[in-house]
Structure formats: C-alpha cells, structure tokens
C-alpha cells in the first residue's frame, strides 16, 4: 500500500485554540500595571504576528530574528500605554516565557491516542503549523515526542500557510511519501493550502464550506477516515 504522510496543524487541531498570544500579552501588561483595552491588544497582535499577513514573506527574519520582529511590533503598544522603555525587555521576557510554557496549552483529549494509533498503523506524522520557532519543544513537552517525524514551522522558514513555500518544505520533509494528507481547523491556511499543494485535506473541529475531502468534529473521526481511506 502507498506510504502516507499526515501533516497536522497544531493550534485548534491538536490543542484547543485559546488565544494564547492575546492572553500572554495581556498578562504581561497587567503584571506591569498597564491596563490596555482588548481591541488595542488585538490590533497590536494582528499588526505584529506574521500569520495575520501570510502574503508577506520574511525568510531573512526567522528563528531568534522572528522574536525580535514580534517584539518590535509590541513597542508601539508599550509606548502608547506610557510604559517606561527600560521595562519593555521584562515585558517581552514574561510574554515569551508564557508562550513557551507547556502549561499554557491544552491538548484535545483524543490527540495523543490518535497520534499513537496513527504511528502504530504505519502512518508518518508531521507537524505543519504557523507558529513560534520553539513549537517542537513545546509539542514534545506535551507528550508528542516520538509521535511525529518532523515539525515544519512557519517562523523557522519565513513563510506562513497557505503559502506554497511552506507546503513545498513539508512535501520535501516527507520525500518518499506517495500520498499526503493535511489535517487542520483552518479552511484557508490548512485546507486551501493543502489542496493547492496536491494533498488530500481533512477539516477538523469546525464546520465550514471549503475544499476539504472530509469534515470531522473530533480527531477520533479523523482516525476512522484515515484507516478507511488511506491506511498504509
């Protein structure tokens, strides 16, 4: 049977979508005595986080430079709130610490059982996510270590889903796979991007009209489809 590679989105797919960046920035501001309207925090994040503008590539600003670019975007908010510039480093450090803490995230209850079963069945799993550079370490801390082959993370490449470049990197990581399946909760970034790259696609945890081959309410249902349609 064909060798099948599974590409799993992370936020909203394997973990609950919990507005982690908004919460972390809000917590840092509050702990430094600043009160920012929610709309102002969201505006800052939409302006600063690369996944809100996937049409812009940033291949020269990946890894540590990605964080520097993000924090440069936060500087305007700090200034608007009248926070002294010598406190900005501490604000950024607190924000980053919360983002990198495994306790910040909650896996869907069926995430680990499904990933384990996929591995036992012979599927090769990969993480394919618009996310911060250290995402793989956080995933490992949540129990995913050994359950996926590689993590293709936008901030380490300079391209966000649904850009073809990040999907090309994913296909390269899974070279030798005769079939690829994208599994995610975003109709555009995951499903649209995956289909454009020639992958089959499964939308999970969301109902939406899109090009998905299948739509599932839970990961166990994804597993059933994988076993029925594409078992190695």
TrEMBL record:
<dbReference type="InterPro" id="IPR023214">
    <property type="entry name" value="HAD_sf"/>
</dbReference>
<dbReference type="GO" id="GO:0006281">
    <property type="term" value="P:DNA repair"/>
</dbReference>
<dbReference type="InterPro" id="IPR023198">
    <property type="entry name" value="PGP-like_dom2"/>
</dbReference>
<dbReference type="InterPro" id="IPR050155">
    <property type="entry name" value="HAD-like_hydrolase_sf"/>
</dbReference>
<dbReference type="Pfam" id="PF00702">
    <property type="entry name" value="Hydrolase"/>
</dbReference>
<dbReference type="InterPro" id="IPR006439">
    <property type="entry name" value="HAD-SF_hydro_IA"/>
</dbReference>
<dbReference type="GO" id="GO:0008967">
    <property type="term" value="F:phosphoglycolate phosphatase activity"/>
</dbReference>
<protein>
    <submittedName>
        <fullName>HAD family hydrolase</fullName>
    </submittedName>
</protein>
<dbReference type="InterPro" id="IPR036412">
    <property type="entry name" value="HAD-like_sf"/>
</dbReference>
<keyword id="KW-0378">Hydrolase</keyword>
């Amino acid at each position: 049977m064909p060798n099948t590679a599974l590409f799993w989105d992370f936020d909203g797919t394997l973990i609950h979508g919990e507005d982690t960046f908004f919460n972390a920035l809000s917590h840092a501001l509050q702990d430094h005595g600043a009160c920012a309207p929610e709309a102002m925090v969201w505006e800052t994040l939409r302006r600063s986080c690369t996944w809100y503008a996937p049409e812009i590539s940033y291949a020269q600003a990946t890894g540590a430079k990605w964080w520097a670019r993000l924090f440069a975007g936060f500087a305007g908010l700090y200034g608007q709130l009248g926070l002294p510039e010598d406190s900005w480093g501490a604000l950024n450090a607190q924000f980053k610490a919360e983002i990198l803490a495994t306790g910040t995230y909650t896996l869907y209850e069926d995430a680990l059982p499904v990933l384990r079963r996929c591995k036992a069945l012979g599927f090769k799993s990969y993480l394919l996510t618009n996310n911060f550079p250290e995402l793989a370490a956080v995933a490992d801390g949540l129990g995913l270590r050994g359950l996926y082959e590689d993590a293709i993370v936008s901030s380490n490449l300079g391209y966000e889903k649904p850009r073809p470049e990040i999907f090309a990197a994913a296909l390269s990581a899974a070279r030798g796979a005769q079939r690829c399946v994208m599994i995610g909760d975003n109709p555009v970034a995951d499903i649209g991007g995956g289909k454009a790259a020639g992958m089959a696609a499964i939308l999970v945890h969301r109902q939406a009209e899109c090009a998905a081959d299948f739509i599932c309410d839970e990961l166990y249902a994804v597993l059933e489809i994988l076993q029925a349609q594409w078992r190695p």
